[in-house]
Design goal:
Elements (H helix, E strand, L loop, with lengths): L16 H19 L14 E3 L2 E3 L3 E7 L8 E4 L4 E5 L5 E6 L6 E9 L2 E2 L3 E6 L3 E3 L11 E3 L3 E6 L7 E7 L4 E7 L8 E8 L5 E5 L8 E5 L4 E11 L15 E7 L3 E6 L12 E5 L11 E4 L7 E5 L7 E4 L6 E2 L10 E2 L4 E6 L6 E8 L4 E7 L9 E6 L5 E5 L8 E6 L4 E9 L9 E7 L4 E6 L3 E5 L3 E11 L6 E6 L5 E2 L3 E3 L8 E8 L4 E4 L1 E6 L5 E3 L2 E2 L6 E2 L3 E5 L2
Parallel strand pairs: 2-9, 10-12, 11-13, 25-27, 26-28, 36-47
Antiparallel strand pairs: 1-3, 3-6, 4-7, 5-6, 7-8, 7-9, 12-19, 13-18, 14-17, 14-19, 15-16, 15-18, 20-21, 22-23, 23-24, 27-34, 28-33, 29-32, 29-34, 30-31, 30-33, 35-37, 37-41, 38-40, 38-43, 39-41, 42-47, 43-44, 45-46
Length: about 550
Amino acid sequence: MRIDRSICATGWSRTSPLQASGYRLLSILAGLLAALPALTVDAEPPTLEFFFPPAVQRGETVTVTATGKLDQWPVKVWVNRPGLQIEAAKDKGKLKVTMSQDATGGIYLVRLHNGSGATVLRPLLVGELPQVLEKEPNNKQSEAQQLAASCTVNGKLEKSGDVDQYSIALKKGEQLVAAVQANRILGAPMDTVMQVCDARGFVLAQNDDARHIDPMVIFSAPAEATYTVRIFAFPLTPNSTIGFAGAANFVYRLTATTQPYLDHALPAAAVEGSSPAASLGGWNFPAGQQLPLADISTADPASPEILLVTRPQTENLVVLPAALQGATIAEQSSSQKQPQEISIPALIGGQLESPADQDVFRFSAKKGEAIEFEVVSRSLGYSMDPLMQVLDAEGKVLKEVDDTGKSRDCQLSFSAPADGRYDLLIRDLHRDGGPRYVYRVQARRPAADFQLKLASEVFVIKSKAKLEIPIAVTRKHGFAEEISITVTGLPPGFSAEAVKSLPKGDSAKAVKLVIQGEGEVFSGQVRVVGTTADGKKSHAAFYQVTNLNWKRIDPWLTVIPE
């Protein structure tokens, strides 16, 4: 057996002075490299799946965990609107989040970024009520976590078979609003069911899809007692598994409150900065008091079509589309005998307050005049399954539409057969009605136009390389003009030649914008814009925010130096 005599009994090896000097040099170099930020050339861009807790309370500073692929830490943080300050903490994945006391609540969109790229936007919510973390074990009714009468619980159904239960003391006649946010807004891949039970475990109320596939229960306590709110879920995409589902990303918010809760605002559209004589809808509002809108403001400049409606000391917010003109509230007394007069174009918000309720609007049209009608309710998170009819002066149905495609909401295109007056009738398909049977209808004459949609919201380019940005072109109502598409906001050293979308051929439907150049590190927003030759029409290309029906026009570009 060969014995290496350079090794002593103590385990230290004998080396020459030259060898020792080389080892010291390597050790110093290794230390220097470890102290440097990670190289970004071959590093993967960060990814972000969700935050937990997914919400904070106004005026608080809390630690929030970001879950995703975040190998390079710390990261930088971008937030879409003022009021929420976020910075990376020392530990990987931990963020210090501070919400100012006077900031607007609701939805904030957050992007993490570093030298390798940026994540897609993810929501972080701000609520009015105290925020409570779920405490396990709470699977059994005997283990139910006790809650104050008004709070929001941030929790997870972390494993298969998981059930979360919460106990709430109510007085006789108190009205409890129990609402879950999970798939809606947060994007959790879960189909949640919520039950309200008595002390014996008997189910007194249950719901699973009041707001898209998220549940909400409005429960009036029949007696003074302690009640249990029980939550469980099935997978968003059904599979062969029998039983309740759970996973690390089954994140939810449960708001349980006997205080004011805002559900809707009419008309269901608004003009930024306005304070219309609107009707607010919800529960537990003080009786006999006027409820003015506290604030109507854009979500942020990159989402100009979205307005946020909030009210002080009121949980929840309402998201409205921005209107170019004033919107109208549907009259409660409208009928075929007494229709509500409207002029085209029109934007109307309405509510079917009781079963068999219907709203009728009368408009004038000339022979051959085309008018488009669109009514939405389900996509806004409400209960109505809309049905539209256009009738002539004698009450004959000329056209009827229920669902459009896979959506419960619907669109109707109408061409007037003769000069005259016509009625637009709107009702629920099943002739149901109630507080949450809220809808918005838009009537307009078709106009030739276009829109541009980006394939992604984040892009990465290496210095001295090329980046192709795919853009889908949609031409509406026979739009047949050439569109010149450019990009603005590029960093120094980078450029992109304008690309043309011609009226015919492949480029009429899709183009690729090519960015190239050489430059230093850059991480920020750019904007892609399409303009007609005469300059009369110009639209920024948009992308869709994941899990939100929001369009944004501020894609993120990262430049990695050579």
